[in-house]
């Protein structure tokens, strides 16, 4: 693959030795629409994404629609096959492992989806839904029954819920079922794609609290994908901010939120309205112009430059690399905030 | 003669008949919107916030509406369709969450705005189109003359939302009801659209009803807030008061369960147990009592009797909790 941006860590880098998940130079190019004679150029949804996830931590992946965060999440668990780069789980490259050989590993990384109802089979009972991953692992019927009982209690549902169908539950309860299924095989990593954004505010807090408690009890690591910056701040240890298929900033949660280095991160944070009228009246707000651009037709150089208040000539021509900016942070900007 | 408030809603009730029996989506709501002011209505799914706005606009298909909603003194509830049609667009307009449902896919954006304008003001098609280009420019659409010739699908999400606001404002209404107008937008685009609404309000003295589930948006734009739960008003207060000294346990629970960018690090989220009530089988008495920490701590027959009405607890501050004592 030819990129004008040599990634900070190339595909041969094995990643941190203690990493649970290592992602290097990950890319996804969807085929372009058919033209009259040939296909038009592909759409680069994800480009040169690299990060590590350590055991038991939560990495938040934030960005606006079309930034490639969900595509990245799907590639992490091989629901999508990347067109470039590499994903390693516990040091083992799983990028091109055939699906049938991936099966033993599947129990160790799972996924939670945004729409709990769409991700649950409406014709199966809770018992059947939560038992499915255990059956796939070839557990005995007796073990499965006992396990499923424990799991539904673990996520705050009652044993009498086991024989019910998804439509008999509220959105929050359905998401609990999705979480129980994801945790059935006691995975080390769960990729959660917008797990609370379809829920009412009062229910969101229940699910976020549940995910935090389960992490403390089970030591599971999360990749938490969301557009809601406040939720991500609350649950994440580290945060990666994506824009148009690339990570523009990644670092410890506190650093990224309190001292954002990338102008996009800064603008994004300042755009979130705070539930505090007095603060809202006096707050400095960076209002970005225009909409996020389309990945089908990305701007030259730094893809953020047309909306960036700090853009200069260099930004129009040269894409910045993701480079270290103080301890525990990397930023892709020619002129990062001090 | 004292001038009428721009919108005065009294004891508004909306009932639907369904196969499973009547559903009372809104039960006796009161509020007032003055010119140049914004009332925020906040609530979760099933709270009745959207149904309230549809009933005011006369867009409630098949529902029974009782009570009163007066636009500058003119009664809207039970008004004949023709009168409502004249008022809609001309005096009051609506902005929705999804611009694609409000804009027709077969007609250009300019034609749709021009058509709405001619419906109320007549005149030539050419003059109406010129007016459409003007309002598209007013809402910050670049190259409005060119964009007026385009179809809704050629607009980005943020631009479509602006186009819908342009459509709503084309006949210079006094009242705009915006139902989750920025919920489908990215946060950077949301900031632009909120900025636009506030600027237009300042320039034209619009009264705005902003319906949303997002307390941040409420804090940003609202002067006064109505918190709805299970079809009733739970609390009503000026925005500053509501956020600094919420009185109703639901409002408090909502604020405590909100992850915030401005929270101290390590602040725990305190969630509200249970789920919002079903409208088909609402709990007796206060709709919030099954989830209420006050009721759990101090069960009170008044929580489970009749649905408690709003009571004044301090100057301009009303709460529907029977446990709330008057402090001011």
UniProtKB/TrEMBL annotation, chain A:
A biological-process GO annotation:
transmembrane transport
For this chain, one GO molecular function annotation is: ATP binding
Which controlled-vocabulary keywords does the entry list?
ATP-binding, Nucleotide-binding, Transport
Q: Which intervals hold domain ABC transporter? A: 21-269
Keyword Secreted attached:
no
Entry-linked Pfam families: ABC_tran (PF00005), oligo_HPY (PF08352)
NCBIfam families xrefs: oligo_HPY (TIGR01727)
Q: What protein family does this chain belong to? A: Belongs to the ABC transporter superfamily.
The record ties this protein, via PANTHER family, to:
D,D-DIPEPTIDE TRANSPORT ATP-BINDING PROTEIN DDPF-RELATED, TRANSPORT ATP-BINDING PROTEIN
Recorded protein name is ABC transporter domain-containing protein
Provide the species name: Kitasatospora phosalacinea
Automatic annotation (TrEMBL), chain B:
The record's principal subcellular location, in a coarse class, is membrane
Give the region (Disordered) as residue ranges.
298-328
Per UniProt, residues of the ABC transporter domain are 9-255
Q: Which UniProt keywords apply?
A: ATP-binding, Cell membrane, Membrane, Nucleotide-binding, Transport
InterPro entries per the record? AAA+_ATPase (IPR003593), ABC_Ni/Peptide_Import (IPR050388), ABC_transporter-like_ATP-bd (IPR003439), ABC_transporter-like_CS (IPR017871), Oligopep_ABC_C (IPR013563), P-loop_NTPase (IPR027417)
Where in or outside the cell it occurs: the entry states:
Cell membrane
Q: How does it sit in the membrane?
A: Peripheral membrane protein
Annotated GO biological processes are: peptide transport
* UniProt-listed Pfam families: ABC_tran, oligo_HPY
UniProt GO MF annotations: ATP binding; ATP hydrolysis activity
List the CDD domains hit by this protein, alphabetically: ABC_NikE_OppD_transporters
State the superkingdom: Bacteria
Q: Which GO terms describe its cellular component?
A: plasma membrane
PANTHER family given for it? DIPEPTIDE TRANSPORT ATP-BINDING PROTEIN DPPD, OLIGOPEPTIDE TRANSPORT ATP-BINDING PROTEIN APPD
Family that this chain belongs to: Belongs to the ABC transporter superfamily.
From the Swiss-Prot or TrEMBL record, give the protein name: Peptide ABC transporter ATP-binding protein
